[in-house]
Amino acid sequence: MKLSYEQVKHIAWLARLGLSEAEVERFSLQLSDILENFEILKEVNTTDVPPATQTVPLQNVFREDNVAKSYPQNEVLANAANKEENCFKVQAILE
To answer: DSSP character for 88?
Structure first.
């Protein structure tokens, strides 16, 4: 499928692209080549090919979730400057 000069200018206008005359000529050839490749792909028999949702196989990339033993609360609060009811007490920053 060959795109005309006017069609490329219209596509550029729709995309709000300011193209020079040389760019319109170059893109006319390039876009026409792309459309010709799609025409070739239309000829491929895909009746027995199942639809694919992924182009590469999915795999889990996360590590195993292992629970680590936490420190006792009294050790965590041992060096706290201020504590109240087994919690860190900090100065309020919102008023």
So the answer is: E
Residue 14 sits in which domain range?
5-42
Residue 93 within any structural domain of the chain: no
Strands 83-84 and 87-88: antiparallel
In a domain, 35, yes or no: yes
Instruction: Please state the pTM of the whole predicted model.
Output: 0.48
Number of domains in the chain: 1
Q: Which residues contact 34 (CB under 8 A, 6 or more apart)?
A: none
Half-sphere exposure of residue 21, counting CA atoms within 13 Å on the CB side? 0
Which is nearest to 40 in space by CA: 1, 3, 78? Answer: 1
Over residues 31-57, the pLDDT tens digits come to 999 999 999 999 999 888 888 888 888
Q: What is the pLDDT of residue 86?
A: 87
